[in-house]
Amino acid sequence: MKTYIPVLEKTRIFAGVSEEDIFSMLSCLDARLCIYKKGAYVLRQGERISDLMVLVDGTLHIQRDDYWGNRSILEQIAAGEMFGEAYLSPESDVLLNDVIAVENSAVMLFNGKKLLTTCPSACRFHSRIVQNIFFAVSEKNRKLVQKLGHMSRRSTREKLLSYLSEEAVRQGSPRFSIPFNRQQLADFLSVDRSAMSNELGKLRDAGFLKFDKNYFELVKESRA
Question: What CATH class does 153-218 carry?
Fold first, then answer.
């Protein structure tokens, strides 16, 4: 686990805590490391969990398949981000979604009860971590609100433009790459892939954008 301490130091949860102090806290927080191969389930819908998890390597998708097999990608988890925090309460229900490894991934698990209960002697920075978790949850809620903004758009075109516009602003450039392939983007926006690909072609022909696979360039002046 020591290999991933530099990654943990850069996470929102351990902000302001040194590598040395993080290492000393691992046993206090009952930290465990789990490795998952590409395509493996990290968590399954219907499970109960009591750990907060931090992805220290790889990429995960939080997703849900309906009765007919239609998939929706609710969130992408990148290295350094946490997940599972919504189920730490003792009264929490079972998991509503699956968590899948998009590539070979490593996850650090922390005992939720120990994480949220400050110990009186062992960890000098424990209270700071509790505060950091609050800030991290607030940031995740903000991202959820942003996604709801895309989803509230009525048409596939409007959803695409809303998402791509936000990515351009977030990355500070009209030229940017997105973390999804075509099917994943369609699942993320909850639209039909064929209809979305057709709409992308129309937007390109109308001069709104250029693209090559997951690379996009937004054009300020369109012909439409």
Answer: mainly alpha
